[in-house]
Write a structure and sequence with these properties.
Layout lengths: L1 E3 L2 E3 L1 E6 L6 H13 L8 H4 L11 E7 L5 E2 L5 E2 L3 E2 L8 E4 L7 H5 L3 H12 L3 E5 L2 H7 L7 E2 L6 H7 L4 E2 L5 E4 L5 E4 L5 H12 L2 H11 L23 H13 L5 H9 L3 H12 L3 H19 L4 H7 L5 H12 L3 H8 L3 H10 L4
Parallel strand pairs: 3-4, 3-8, 4-7, 8-9, 9-13, 10-11
Antiparallel strand pairs: 1-2, 5-6, 12-13
Helix pairs in contact: 1-7, 7-8, 9-10
Organism: Mesorhizobium alhagi CCNWXJ12-2
Protein name: Transcriptional regulator
Keywords: DNA-binding, Transcription, Transcription regulation
Length: 359
Amino acid sequence: MGQAGGTTVPKRVSIVVFRECDPSIIYGVFDTLWAAGRLFKGSPGERLLGPSIGGTPLFEPRIVAAEHGPLELITGVSIIPQDSIDEIDETDIVFVPNPIVLTPADLHALDRRIIDWVARMHEKGALICSACGGSLVLAAAGLLSGRETTTHWSHVPVFRQEFPDVRLHEDRILVQSGDGHNIISCGGASSWQDLALLLIARYGSGEEAIRISRFFLYQWHRDGQLPYASMAVNVVHGDAVVLKCQTWLAQNYDRPDVAAEVARVSGLPKRTFDRRFRAATGYSPLAYVQALRIEEAKQMLETGSDPVDAIGREVGYEDASSFSRLFRRQTGISPGDYRRRFRIPDYIRSSSQDARPGG
């Protein structure tokens, strides 16, 4: 934070909103940054007594849009921007939340006025942050060319297609790039919490970041995004032969030597098939099969109680150690850890069964 006549000046944070955003990240970031410094005041001993509004704020968050007036978001919820981009000539931090972008057409439909404004704020020295699909906005603004970033795993196909010169790390939760790390992106959904805590630690202290994380029950996503990612399957590619093979693989992924067999199903020479399959889906046939198998194994771990070895055999791996190695490579954690993290809790399972007719 800066100083003005001996008084600490909060960092100005412009949370910029597109019509395509959903409100969860917008309000989550706003509330978290608003609370930083405000909720805990006094000596360390006094802070142990709990939150008490009246401390010195670290940030002054504001919701910003292209224009004034109610803005109906993609979820149908309306939001009232506090400022318009034309009113803000300078700011300390720009935070771009999560426009929902599933196709190149969605990306091109985003309000160009906001994208250009983000680029101007970067030129004037603002720290630029993005969450989830917000990194697509940064790329569209020309801020990520030749640089590293991350995004929500579901945006990866569009990102790679539209911005091949950006080094995308979809497995990582946080990526800092640019001169002096003046561009920070975080991955999908709740990873904005990691980014908000990073900002609190940078402009306040690590102790304040810990206090805020405890108050809001936030947890660092230390294992990255891989455990949360699902296979992004491209079926809108216009190659009828590859689509036929994808349909066949969905029913036969557990067969032995399936990668060779699907090439025969295609009716094409293997090298031609491999080339066309990769061009259409982004995967080699073998990598596609492995991803399908791991996706099925993840669902079985989430919903069932079969032993890990049995699940490996069910999806096509007779050797348990090979299955475990591949699972860890694809998800970043072991099958057992995945089950402990993502299996539906027993109290949820039992209550949902009790609520069913005749339960």
